[in-house]
Design brief:
By secondary structure, the chain is mostly beta strands. It is built from no helices and 15 strands. It starts with 5 loop residues before the first strand and ends in a 15-residue tail after the last strand.
Length: about 170
């Protein structure tokens, strides 16, 4: 299933991102604070990878408000010099409601998901589907979104991600 993701002007300041790692489940949660409202979907866009990976895009008042990487793709590659792309513009990602389905609270999309990360695991690039030509939009201070020519999300860039928390396991004797 395809879904439209329009880019609109920010309507205010660039939102701030906060990251949270769940050390028990490896879930990375990305929250955007200060996103202006629009008209559109309230709910989630669930990206389901063919390998069992699962990413949830949280949407409120039509706008991307957060992302949860629930189950990481099998294909996570470390790229020594992963270059963050320059954003062509700043904006917000808007998911319109479907007129034929006004009560829809979630959209599921089956697609291939891959992740590239830098050596320090502070930059992650989540690719949605196959590699293709994209426009990069800064939607928050530490979040870039790639949109293809058909107005579909092609990727997400998470910048300045804090390290995964070290969990000390005490040896018992």
């Amino acid at each position: 299933m395809n879904f439209e993701a329009r880019i609109e002007p920010l309507g205010g300041k660039l939102p701030k991102v906060s990251y949270h790692w769940d050390p028990e489940t490896d879930i990375l949660s990305v929250a955007c604070k200060g996103v202006a409202k629009s008209n559109g979907l309230n709910g989630t866009v669930d990206l389901e990878g063919t390998d069992g990976s699962f990413v949830v895009i949280e949407v409120a008042d039509g706008c991307l408000r957060g992302v949860d990487v629930v189950s990481w793709p099998d294909d996570v590659r470390t790229i020594e010099q992963l270059a963050t792309p320059a954003a062509a513009k700043e904006g917000r990602v808007v998911f319109p409601s479907r007129l034929s389905q006004p009560g829809v609270a979630g959209v599921e999309v089956d697609t291939a998901l891959t992740v590239e990360k830098n050596q320090t695991e502070s930059v992650f690039h989540l690719r949605v589907g196959r590699s293709r030509s994209v426009t990069v939009v800064r939607v928050a201070d530490l979040l870039l979104v790639e949109i293809d020519k058909h107005a579909r999300i092609a990727g997400l860039w998470f910048l300045e991600v804090p390290p995964f928390p070290n969990v000390d396991v005490e040896a018992t004797a």
